[in-house]
Amino acid sequence: MTTNEERSSDILANALARHRDGLDPSLIELPETAVFPHLIHAQPITARKSRITGTLFGKPAPRFIRRGRSIRYRLSDVLAWLADDDAVGSTAEAEHREVI
């Protein structure tokens, strides 16, 4: 018997394989449990709060789709959110960004 964790990991692995095979990521929808905490390292409760506040980790939350009672995320939206990361090269650069 598989757990929800294993099922979510399988769903994510299949979606990423389809993306590598050339399927447009805007056509791939992932359930919330496959995105959080597997792609975005936050708990699902944090994701639910981000849908209310519109922010996640101090920046706009990834876009989501409501399908009935289910929440889904397009792979393209998650990848865009991850690519918009505020990566820095040093702590000095990070401190400079906080001042601006």
Structure description:
The chain has 100 residues and is α+β, with helices and mostly antiparallel strands. It has helices at 4-20, 32-35, 44-53, 75-83, 91-99; strands at 29-31, 55-56, 59-60, 65-67, 70-74. The strands form two sheets. Strands 1-5-4 form a three-stranded antiparallel sheet. A two-stranded antiparallel sheet has the order 2-3. The model has no long low-confidence stretch (mean pLDDT 87).
Low-confidence runs (pLDDT<50, min 5 residues)?
none
As for the number of domains, it is 1
Read across the widest sheet, the strand sequence of neighbours is 1-5-4
Largest sheet: 3 strands, antiparallel
Overall geometry: globular
Distance between the termini: 52 Å
Q: Work out the helix count.
A: 5
Helix content: 40-55%
Rg over CA atoms, rounded to whole Å, is: 15 Å
The counted number of beta strands is 5
Quick tags:
alpha+beta, 15% strand, globular
Secondary-structure map with pairings?
Blueprint: H1 4-20, E1 29-31, H2 32-35, H3 44-53, E2 55-56, E3 59-60, E4 65-67, E5 70-74, H4 75-83, H5 91-99
Antiparallel strand pairs: 1-5, 2-3, 4-5
What's a concise summary of this model?
The protein has five helices and five strands, in the order H-E-H-H-E-E-E-E-H-H.
